[in-house]
Specification:
Elements: E1 2-6, H1 11-20, E2 28-33, E3 54-58, H2 64-70, E4 76-79, H3 93-112, E5 118-124, E6 131-135, H4 146-158, E7 166-172, E8 174-176, H5 187-197, E9 200-204, E10 210-215, H6 216-225, E11 234-238, E12 241-244, H7 245-255, E13 260-264, E14 273-275, H8 279-284, H9 293-302
Parallel strand pairs: 1-2, 1-4, 2-3, 4-5, 5-7, 6-14, 7-11, 8-10, 9-13
Antiparallel strand pairs: 10-12
Helix pairs in contact: 1-6, 2-3, 3-4, 7-9
Length: about 300
């Protein structure tokens, strides 16, 4: 099969390309990315298995004419490209709308005129907004940020494909964990870097706010396995941990006893969001159970140069 990955040079894309390149049933992987994050780690210092099957195309989501050409002969599309800037999810509304909303719309328009058979979109649990009780896939989205709104609108465009092909929407929690194309604006990744090198981390609010998380390995596993056909089309929450910010701090204190932390605006109670892991999804995609958070963060630290 021939696969196109928008945003394939990013954090999730780098891990997914690595997994897909090891599959013998994948004839070609086309990475379509505009390199807007100036992250070139996908291209450097290593060689993917079956690398001759991998092609890179620099392109924009809003270039619909070019997208149609690139989609010629493609069987599966992974749509990972997005404007993501944690924790500034309520700034630059124009860019979120242009990339996440209208960029997805242009891609969907192009796919409707193609022979694509499967479409996989990585959305976000941010579409739920906030909730003190655990939400699931039946919860009505109620985004509270420009980022969340743009992802919800993107989902609406993707919904048009459901009657035409296998279509999957994965609402990912906060992604964390080591890979070559790191994002250090994500909370756990940022904390681990600061704890390792500064021995001090900064906590916004009182630290008691809950968030849902998913390890980068599990995201890539889910995306890679979904093309095997064991999962019905639909919308799924992709999370495997529900943590308070203070839970992360406590784990890092175990690993780095001398760690210090300071609170900024400790009197503020920040937005809560708890998301139920989907056991049926994990079973259908044969996802491995996550190890302990301590082990994961220790492994993360071991990948630093010093």
């Amino acid at each position: 099969m021939r696969i196109l990955i928008t945003g394939g040079a990013g954090y999730i894309g780098t891990e997914l390309v690595s997994m897909l390149s090891q599959r013998e049933d994948v004839e070609q992987i086309i990475i379509y990315d505009n390199l807007s994050r100036s992250n070139f780690n996908l291209f450097l210092g290593h060689t993917f298995k079956n690398s001759e099957r991998i092609t890179f195309i620099k392109g924009e989501l809003l270039d619909s004419r070019y997208l149609k050409k690139v989609l010629d002969g493609v069987d599966v599309v992974y749509h990972l490209a997005a404007k993501v800037t944690t924790p500034f999810a309520n700034t630059d509304p124009h860019f979120y709308e242009q990339v996440n909303h209208w960029g997805t719309a242009e891609l969907v328009y192009a796919i409707e005129e193609s022979d694509v058979k499967k479409f996989i979109f990585t959305s976000s649990t941010g579409v739920y907004g906030s909730s003190k009780s655990s939400v699931d896939e039946h919860t009505v989205p109620n985004p509270r940020t420009f980022y969340g709104i743009s992802k919800m609108r993107a989902e609406e465009h993707v919904g048009r494909l459901k009657d035409k092909m296998d279509t999957y929407i994965f609402r990912c929690g906060n992604v964390y964990g080591y890979n070559r194309s790191m994002r250090f604006d994500a909370v756990i990744n940022k904390f681990v870097f600061e704890a390792n090198f500064y021995k001090r981390i900064t906590i916004h609010g009182d630290g008691k706010q809950h968030r849902s998380f998913i390890h980068i390995d599990h995201v890539a596993q889910a995306l890679s396995h979904v093309i095997d056909g064991e999962l019905a089309s639909g919308t799924y929450n992709l999370v495997n941990r529900d943590l308070q910010v203070l839970d992360i701090v406590d784990t890092l204190k175990e690993l780095i006893p001398e760690l210090e932390f300071i609170f900024v605006n400790q009197h503020l109670k920040l937005r809560e969001l708890r998301v139920k892991p989907n056991a049926a999804l994990n079973k259908a995609l044969s996802l491995t159970n996550p190890g302990s958070l301590t082990d994961e963060l220790q492994h993360f630290r071991s990948r630093f140069s010093f």
